[in-house]
């Protein structure tokens, strides 16, 4: 359906009644005016016929045809008269004038006047009567008892009548057009006085809807529209005031949120600095303790002593596990871990995971079920294995005895969906976002060490974000939990990825002999310095120590095959010492950097220098494996 604007509709409302009224008035006027013209022609015909009949009475009676012809010819001079015929009582023509063939004879014997017409002519018949004179006592009286002596037949043309009617119609149409045009002009002017303000209000409302609240409508001549415009202006003013007030409140709230954010960031920064400092201070004695334990292993002689040392090592390993998990979080947050994508045999990976957790599940009488399809996926094997290790470890830990843990791998298009399900305690909906925060353990309010540290799921989430794997969770309180990730299947040959720093380095001890190796230990902490030098000496190394960079510069650094340096030094840091060694030594020694600081900035700087960084506490086996691996590359 076609829609028209308000101006067109208002014009239609104004003009249609005027047009209808004009047509009706003109129609009535033409009807009566043309009727009057028809009647006028008939009256003239009757009058002429009666006058001719009266004037020709004696001439007909006397059969004076010359007079009759004169009378007939005089009538022809009348307008619209085409023919005249005078006849006697028997209908015989006495005189014919004009177009006699036009005269009708059907009414010749009628004793009454008759009118008849067609489209082009009007026919009139008037009988001729004689009047009798009566003498009464010497006075003359008219006797109105008449007798017919003849008749007058008259033909009149309608051409002038038709012409007059046509002129009347044309004049009426012209008048109607002028009236209509004048009505249009008046209607347009009147309508625009209404529609233009309405259109202006529409534009103003559109501006208000688009947010330009300073828009105002000018005063209007129409009272009702002016009141409406005044109301719209009032509404716009109130909206503008409310918006300004709301904007002020938003700015105040934003400023308050910014201040809160700054406070939170400062608190988080202070917390990070505190944790970094506390971690560093804790790692120093832990690192020294581990080194002394490594040296002690080479000095024990009895089984009883070895049992005691094993228990101490177990406690040290538990504390080291917490620090290692913190280190993993720091590495992921620092962005120094680059995935090494390659083809992975999913079936072999799942088989290895089952071997790892089979005994742990059997000790709790948990059924560890596996459903795996033989597929090859594209992923980092170390990072993917760590994700599944953490998920399976949590599933077995929080599943009660005689429960079930299910590991399933199913193909979904060009991706592989891996799910870890359990029928354990489950996770309430309101707690599902919290479990991915550090140190959050819903079922361990007492913080029992055998129930983990609360860092497994945060590491899983960060690894999934790094690998861009969707991680989903379906769970409810008391109904178990189902964690799922989706990894891409192999499509063609994967592109080689750049090398990166391994996330979890724990290579086993090698059989390389370090006897006679010249080593330099740079450490400002005396306890750690003595522990490291004692451990290297127990491996057969020739060890020297230095407590700062100045002490190193006083030595001949070219004689050393190995330098183990702490990152934080009183007069610099380990990276500055590394640059100094590389600048002054043609044959560069193996350089191992050790730090108790896990901040992301230090990790990024170490990666940029291409160094190997070990975080305190360092297990002696890991240190020896790394040294042997680096010496193989040099020699």
What does this structure look like?
With 635 residues, the chain is an alpha/beta fold. The protein folds into three domains: 6-175, Beta-Lactamase (2-Layer Sandwich); 287-301 and 506-634, Response regulator (Rossmann fold), CATH 3.40.50.2300; 338-488, Histidine kinase-like ATPase, C-terminal domain (Heat Shock Protein 90). 51% of the residues lie in helices and 20% in strands. Strands 2-1-5-4-3 form a five-stranded antiparallel β-sheet. A five-stranded mixed β-sheet has the order 7-9-10-12-11, covered by helices on one side. A hairpin with a 4-residue loop joins strand 1 and strand 2. The longest helix has 75 residues, at 223-297. The radius of gyration is 62 Å and the shape is rod-shaped.
- Assign the structural class, choosing from mainly alpha, mainly beta, alpha/beta, alpha+beta, or little secondary structure: alpha/beta
- Uncertain segments are 493-512
Classified in CATH, the superfamily of the largest domain is PAS domain
Number of strands: 19
- The overall pLDDT, averaged over residues, is 78
Helicity, as a percent range: 40-55%
Write the layout of secondary structure elements.
Elements: H1 6-55, H2 57-62, H3 65-76, E1 81-88, E2 93-98, E3 114-117, E4 121-136, E5 139-157, H4 159-209, H5 223-297, H6 303-334, E6 342-345, H7 346-363, E7 367-371, E8 376-379, H8 381-397, E9 404-412, E10 415-422, H9 456-467, E11 471-475, E12 481-488, E13 518-522, H10 526-538, E14 542-546, H11 549-553, E15 562-566, E16 568-569, E17 572-573, H12 574-584, E18 590-595, H13 600-609, E19 612-615, H14 620-634
Parallel strand pairs: 7-9, 13-14, 13-15, 15-18, 18-19
Antiparallel strand pairs: 1-2, 1-5, 3-4, 4-5, 6-8, 9-10, 10-12, 11-12, 16-17
Helix pairs in contact: 1-4, 4-5, 5-6, 5-10, 6-9, 6-13, 7-8, 8-9
């Amino acid at each position: 359906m076609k829609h028209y604007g308000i101006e067109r509709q208002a014009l239609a409302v104004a003009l249609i009644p005027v047009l209808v009224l004009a047509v009706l008035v003109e129609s009535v006027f033409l009807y009566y005016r043309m009727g009057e013209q028809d009647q006028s022609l008939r009256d003239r015909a009757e009058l002429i016929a009666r006058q001719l009949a009266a004037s020709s009475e004696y001439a007909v009676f006397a059969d004076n045809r010359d007079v009759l012809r004169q009378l007939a010819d005089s009538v022809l001079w009348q307008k619209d008269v085409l023919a005249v015929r005078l006849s006697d009582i028997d209908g015989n023509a006495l005189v014919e004038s004009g177009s006699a063939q036009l005269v009708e004879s059907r009414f010749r014997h009628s004793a009454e006047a008759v009118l008849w017409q067609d489209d082009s002519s009007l026919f009139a018949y008037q009988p001729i009567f004689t009047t009798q004179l009566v003498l009464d006592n010497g006075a003359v009286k008219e006797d109105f008892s008449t007798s017919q002596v003849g008749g007058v037949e008259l033909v009149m043309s309608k051409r002038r009548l038709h012409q007059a009617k046509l002129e009347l119609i044309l004049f009426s149409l012209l008048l109607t057009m002028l009236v209509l045009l004048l009505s249009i002009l008046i209607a347009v002017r009147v309508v625009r006085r209404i529609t233009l303000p309405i259109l202006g209000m529409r534009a103003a409302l559109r501006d208000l809807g688009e947010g330009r609240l300073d828009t105002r409508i000018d005063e209007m001549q129409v009272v009702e529209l002016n009141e409406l415009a005044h109301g719209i202006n009032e509404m716009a003013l109130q909206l503008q005031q409310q918006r300004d007030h709301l904007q002020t409140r938003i700015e105040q709230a934003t400023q308050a949120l910014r201040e809160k954010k700054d406070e939170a960031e400062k608190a988080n920064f202070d917390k990070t600095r505190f944790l970094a400092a506390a971690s560093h201070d804790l790692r120093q004695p832990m690192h020294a303790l581990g080194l002394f334990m490594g040296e002690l292993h080479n000095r024990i002689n009895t089984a009883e002593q070895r049992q005691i040392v094993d228990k101490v090592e177990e406690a040290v390993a538990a504390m080291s596990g917490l620090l290692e998990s913190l280190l993993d979080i720091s590495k992921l947050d620092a962005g120094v871990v680059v995935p090494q994508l390659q083809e992975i045999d999913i079936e072999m990976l799942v088989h290895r995971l089952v071997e790892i957790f089979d005994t742990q599940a059997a000790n709790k009488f948990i059924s560890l079920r596996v459903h795996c399809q033989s597929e090859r996926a594209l992923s980092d094997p170390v990072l993917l294995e760590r994700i599944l290790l953490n998920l399976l470890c949590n599933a077995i830990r929080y599943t009660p005895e005689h429960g079930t843990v299910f590991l399933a791998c199913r193909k979904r298009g060009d991706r592989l969906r891996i799910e870890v399900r359990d029928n354990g305690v489950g996770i309430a909906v309101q707690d599902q976002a919290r479990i991915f925060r550090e140190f959050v353990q819903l079922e361990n309010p007492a913080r029992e060490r055998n129930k983990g540290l609360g860092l497994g799921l945060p590491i899983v989430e960060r690894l999934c974000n790094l690998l861009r794997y969707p991680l989903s969770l379906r769970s409810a309180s008391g109904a178990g939990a189902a964690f799922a990730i989706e990894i891409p299947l192999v499509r063609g040959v994967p592109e080689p990825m750049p090398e990166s720093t391994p996330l979890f380095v724990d290579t086993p001890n090698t059989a390389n002999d370090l006897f006679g190796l010249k080593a330099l230990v740079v450490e400002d902490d005396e306890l750690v310095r003595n522990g490291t030098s004692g451990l290297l000496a127990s491996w057969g190394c020739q060890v020297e120590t230095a407590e700062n960079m100045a002490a190193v510069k006083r030595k001949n650094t070219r004689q050393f095959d190995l330098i183990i340096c702490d990152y934080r030094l009183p007069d610099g840091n380990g990276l500055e010492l590394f640059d100094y060694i590389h600048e002054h030594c043609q044959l560069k020694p193996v350089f191992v950097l050790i730090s108790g600081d896990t901040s992301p900035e230090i990790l990024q700087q170490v990666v940029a220098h291409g160094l190997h960084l070990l975080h305190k506490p360092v297990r002696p086996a890991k240190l020896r494996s790394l040294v042997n691996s680096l010496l193989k590359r040099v020699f």
